[in-house]
Amino acid sequence: MGQINVGRVVAGGLLAGLVINISETILNLFVVAAPMEAALKARSLPALGGSAIGVFVVVCFGVGISLIWLYAAIRPRYGAGPMTAICAAAAVWWFAFVFPHIGNAAMGFYPAGITALTTLWALAEVVLAALVGARVYQEQPAKSSTRAVI
User: Fold this and answer.
1) CA nearest neighbour of 43 among 98, 119, 114
2) Fewer Cβ within 10 Å of end Cβ, the chain: N or C?
3) 24: helix, strand or coil
């Protein structure tokens, strides 16, 4: 079994993060912009500005790298390929999206409809990101421990 190829994790993770960022941009600018703005206004919160958006962009790249790292970590047990990428995506989706979205809904921060839509959207985007990023990942060859015999 080879070692995790950190360079490929970062490359695949950045690509996965790009997929997530593009998807989140579409979601937030076109799909849920009006209801999100109304939800923020109802709670006397300002619209998201540039610095908050910048944080979200960086976090999405972090999620992408974490996603491909998890894929690389479980790959020796589950095998390389799309099903392993989907397993990694399901775990990341649960911890990065489902769990916090349920918390936001339980606290009444966002309406249930927006929460359900954004949570399901996140499942699709994370699965797509995992499939794209996992195609970049390859294991490093195992280091051989050959000793010269005299």
Assistant:
1) 114
2) C
3) helix
Region 7-14 average pLDDT: 98
Residue reference for tokens 């080879």: 2
CA 48 vs CA 51, 55, 87, 95: distances in Å: 8, 11, 32, 23
Q: Distance of CA 57 to CAs 45, 64, 93, 124, Å?
A: 20, 11, 17, 18
Q: Say if CB 90 and CB 34 are below 8 A apart.
A: no
Report residue 134 as tokens. Answer: 């996992």
Average pLDDT over residues 14-31: 97
d(CA 133, CA 1) in angstroms, rounded, equals 21
CB atoms within 10 A of CB 11: 16
CB hemisphere CA count around 69 (13 angstroms): 11
Q: Check pLDDT > 70 for residue 145.
A: no
Alpha carbon distance 17, 132 (integer Å): 10
Q: Give Cα 92 to chain centroid, integer Å.
A: 6
